Amino acid sequence: PGPLSDDARAHLQGMVDHHYAVMVRSIARNRGVSPEHVRSEYGEGRVFTAQEALTRGMVDRIETLDEAVARMANPRRRSRMGANALALAAVR
What we know:
Number of helices: 5
Largest sheet: none
Radius of gyration: 18 Å
Distance between the termini: 50 Å
Mean pLDDT: 85
Structural class: mainly alpha
Helix content: 55-70%
Shape: elongated
Order of helices and strands: HHHHH
């Protein structure tokens, strides 16, 4: 098949750029930070340790699966849970 044409490459890059912008806006909205903060502090797809992700504000806490399930099952222990997590808890 051969290499991509410049037009095909530009089209694919446009799709990648669009989806990246949508993802950044979604993360910013759900984490309560600006899109600029997401782009500068959240690593642009890099992998971080749990502690570094916590330091960067990418996660709320570090806990085991059992701890997370117990927290979601107990309404008094819930904090900063989004609508999806609440829906999951309601289904259980």
